[in-house]
Amino acid sequence: MHDLIAITALGGSAPRVDRVADTTLTENPGIALASVAARMDQETTCRKHLKAVIGAVPGPGKVQLHDPEAGFWMGPDQWMVGAPFDTHEDLAAQLKARFGESASVTEQTDAWVCFDLRGDGMEAVMELLCNVNIRAMQTGDAQRTSIHHLGCFVLRRDPSDWVRILGPRASAGSLHHAILTAMKSAL
Amino acid sequence: MTQSNRLSGGQIDRNTTLKFTFDGKTYDGHPGDTLASALLANNVRLMGRSFKYHRPRGPLTAGSEEPNAIVELRSGDRQEPNTRATTAELYDGLVAKSQNRWPSLAFDAMAINDRFSNFLTAGFYYKTFMWPAAFWEKVYEPIIRKAAGLGSLSMQADPDAYDKGFRHCELLIVGAGPAGLMAALTAGRAGRDVILADEDFAMGGQLNSETFALNDAPALDWTTATVAELSSLPNVRLMPRTTVIGAFDHGIYGAVERISDHLETPPEGKPRQILWRIYTQKTLLCAGATERSIAFENNDRPGIMLASAIRTYANRWAATPAQRVTIFTNNDDGHRTAADLHAKHVNIAAVVDTRADAPFSSDYEVIKGAQVVDTKGRLGLTFAELRLANGESRTVECGALGVSGGWNPNVHLTCHQRGRPTWNEDLAAFVPGADLPPGMTVAGAADGTFSTHGALTSGANAAARILDIKPSDAPTTEDAAVRQTPFWFVEGCSRAWLDQQNDVTVKDVKLSHQEGFRSVEHLKRYTTLGMATDQGKTSNMGGLAIMAELVGKSIPEVGTTIFRPPYTPTAIGVLGGRMRGMDFHPTRLTPSHFWAKERGAVFVEVGNWLRAQWFPIAGETNWRASVDREVRATRNSVGVCDCTTLGKIDVQGTDAALFLNKVYCNGFAKLAVGKTRYGLMLREDGIAMDDGTAGRLAEDHFVVTTTTANAGKVYQHMEFVRQCLMPDADVQLISTTEAWAQYAVAGPNSRKLLQKIVDPAFDISNDGFPFMACGNITVCGGLRARLFRISFSGELAFEIAVPSRYGDALIRKLMAQGEEFDVTPYGTEALGVMRIEKGHAAGNELNGTTTALNLGMGRMVSKAKDSIGSKLSERAGLNEDGALAQVGIKPVNAADKITAGGHLMAATGPVDAKHDQGYVTSAAFSPSLDHMIGLGFLKDGGSRLGETMRLVSPVTDLTVEVEIVSAHFVDPEGERVRA
Known about the structure:
The complex is a heterodimer.
Chain A lengths: L16 E4 L2 E5 L3 E8 L4 H12 L8 E2 L5 E6 L2 E7 H4 L2 H9 L3 E5 L4 E8 L2 H8 L12 E6 L2 E7 L5 E7 L3 H15 L1
Helix pairs in contact in A: 4-5
Chain B lengths: L17 E5 L2 E5 L5 H7 L6 E2 L6 E2 L12 E4 L6 E5 L9 E5 L13 H4 L8 H5 L6 H13 L14 E13 L3 H12 L4 E4 L15 E2 L2 E2 H14 L3 E4 L2 E7 L3 E7 L14 E13 L3 E3 L12 E3 H11 L6 E6 L2 H12 L3 E7 L12 E3 L2 E6 L6 E5 L5 E5 L2 E5 L2 E3 L12 E3 L4 E3 L8 E3 L9 H16 L29 E3 L4 E2 H9 L5 H8 L12 H12 L3 H4 L13 H5 L11 E2 L3 H6 L3 E5 L2 E6 L8 H14 L2 E4 L4 E6 L3 H8 L12 E7 L5 E11 L2 E6 L4 H15 L6 E4 L4 E7 L3 H6 L18 E6 L3 E6 L8 E7 L3 H11 L6 E2 L2 H11 L45 E8 L11 E4 L11 E9 L4 E9 L8 E6 L4 E8 L14
Parallel strand pairs in B: 1-7, 8-9, 8-15, 9-12, 15-28, 17-24, 18-19, 18-24, 19-20, 31-33, 34-44
Antiparallel strand pairs in B: 1-2, 3-4, 5-6, 5-7, 10-11, 13-14, 14-15, 16-25, 21-22, 22-23, 26-27, 29-30, 32-33, 34-40, 35-38, 35-39, 36-37, 37-38, 40-43, 41-42, 42-43, 45-48, 45-50, 46-47, 46-49, 47-48, 49-50
Helix pairs in contact in B: 5-6, 5-9, 7-8, 10-11, 10-12, 16-21
């Protein structure tokens, strides 16, 4: 066991939690991520593995919410798979072992900061942040969008007052500031 | 002061009194008032001075089309110029000042301009300030600029915030008057996703201004019940105080919501305004209509208003501009104003109707077939001069004159995508044309349906038609036929005002015609008609009508000017939103940022990244001391630099090597697993684009690094190549820049330090891990990591990467374990010095003009394969004898300075562009050599080592004797990197 102590994307030793009115923003460092991209002519095998791991093959704009591994569509024949960090820190290696030559797998865990925005005011906050049609977005929908000039993924979770925002980790502070500012403005 | 012109009734809350000041004087008003209505109630008609002639002016309208009652609102850093008193909601403590006057509103010295009006006609500036030409910039323009403008800026930063937001809907309804409300009811009751936006703070539109009944009850009852029902529907979003400012492409509408403008200061955390981008499938424009004026001599005195505005002030705000009012009309609507005022016990001096068959009233005198030809009153109307049907004159005493020339549909948004309105002969008005923005429908008065019942019904029917549903039943109400005959101006008038905000008169239009400016677009620009902040909402039609008569054409033949967004003046602040100051763009922080901050690092912005430039320690008084120390420490023992910011792109797939062979000009196919290679990317035109390294972690897996600044561009380029140029190749890309914290560990003791970090299972000796090796390793007892033996500094060096969350812990560990070697963190400045000492090209050299040949890497462009840019790098022009080649530059006199940007000239002879031999791209003080050094490009540089030249920089007045040397100042044989 190594002796390096992790910090969160916002630089803390524990995840940051902010509450405005009845809506909560939680930094979530507990997600391991890996991208899975089908190799050419291996798409069928890749999809078979993906279905076995997360229960379905999400199509464009969709996230498969599944325990412990979940995943969403990122591009043609390309998905992001997520799992609890505590049990799946080596997610990329695990997936590569399963997918073999059928997919290119890349560790993405620390490429992203993950924020969970949850509560009655979630939709009002999202309207100030990005052009996702949040009122039409359902549990199980996933969108790529721009928040404060940052390319982000927005996943609508279950229950539906909850979205997960994945943004570039290096800009975690800027993204957090933008979301919190929008919360104070909208709520 | 008492509210002497306050009437009975109205939609104001008389239980609460609000105090406000105008030009320092305190007045009372009530919630529900606007600044204009409260001032009128307090018998204040004079609210501003005109732009050019400084004529006294009062409000002309009761809405956003107002040209005259323009004031400075608030004080201090919140002072806002050019705010319409007619839309400013009254709040307790409101401070307003008149503008464009000196020393006071009642006595304005600049009103002298009015005396010189014969000189200050249209085109005055163009004609007068022609010569001498040299005077324009230095003399005329500053004077004109000083005199121009209406309000003044506070010259302080706006303390308030503005948001931007996005809303989506199925149906956007613009305007919550009778048509808009009925449309919203129809769509809302059917469960459809609707946004109803209105610029007013009270929904209802014209219904708020009228006294007639809806379903046998006051109109306000119906409006209140309707708004309440709509509010209860979750699928309907009501957006009062929201002006839809533009119809843009693809069903996107801009809308400004005023969140806190009606408050003294915005509540904590709340914005003043929000700029909404509304994405809608369908739009129903119910923007209503604007009453038009009639031009006659001196028709701009305070107290002369649109008749409907006087009616609105009386009915909605229980205020009248005067106790004795004359109406001048060419249609029945003017009579409605007279009747409503009479019912509120305002004295009607007369109703002057241009029509011989005007309706009769038993309550007041109606003068048929007559016209108002002139007025009197210095700071406010006192008398109206009439010309009767029989040609005789008559003077009527009055404090206000309501003018009604008919109504113009508000077609603006229908024309934002270059559509033109069409002329409706029956209404003598422009109505929406056939070429509407896609998805738009128009209903109500905006579509020329002027009766209230007609508007209600047309709104319901339009929504029903758009959504394929049943229309809701409209309430019963007035459904009077509209008689609207054109009457634009009184014969013989000259100083009759069309555009009151820009002081354009009938005479100016005539002059424009006389001087040949007959196209309506030329008329606009020559006279400035319609170019003020009100965009001519009350004036353009009058100008067109007069021009039509002058050129002998019909109004539709003359046509309108182009309507452009925004519909009403929009603050720059709301267009900027939150993107100001430190929030202008997001920042990117490396995983060691917080550690570097603790060490007192001085940061520099590189793209969005914040990178440590240097780490000052106690006793160092300038940056050079820190940088020199960091360089010496690295070269003598070991230094650590955060290089996380370099772009990292994961390239995988069975064709990964083939792919890299395409994007790099040098070969990668044969790179062994566990090896790294320097790579140069060319643009299609053969010019160098970016450089970096690619490490091969497996047969089908490479990690490409790019420069910090070009990471995004290179990724984009590689995606383009993958998707468009090599669609059949099996290759997958993804950025991993932020996934890994990466540190350069450089210097003769770097291996010793890393051996304390890297787990013992991994041999990083020179034999086990030679120069340019790479591989997956573990560190600190099992953490996955990557190690590359590459060197930018020219020293024995490694780059080590761990998952970002552990970057902070790793740098602290490196510092702790390196204590015995005096490990030193170094920043981008020391990094830059060392790469110049080593002769490595960077952004300064890859400057978009240089080729591989220029960079001394001509032979790297492989002829054994095809790569992007390789063919065009063979162009004759890029391969001439004596082409620029990278060289090193050192001063002959060691104390002399080398400047980047300086040019290289022969040791003797002229110094000019013709004799230019090359230029310096990078320069630094070399702590290793104890003098300044530089890199640059010199014609035929490779064969000129040892030559003495002059480095000249006319910009910094520098001329220095320099020697051309090898670009590799330190360890030219490369022994250190291989140690």
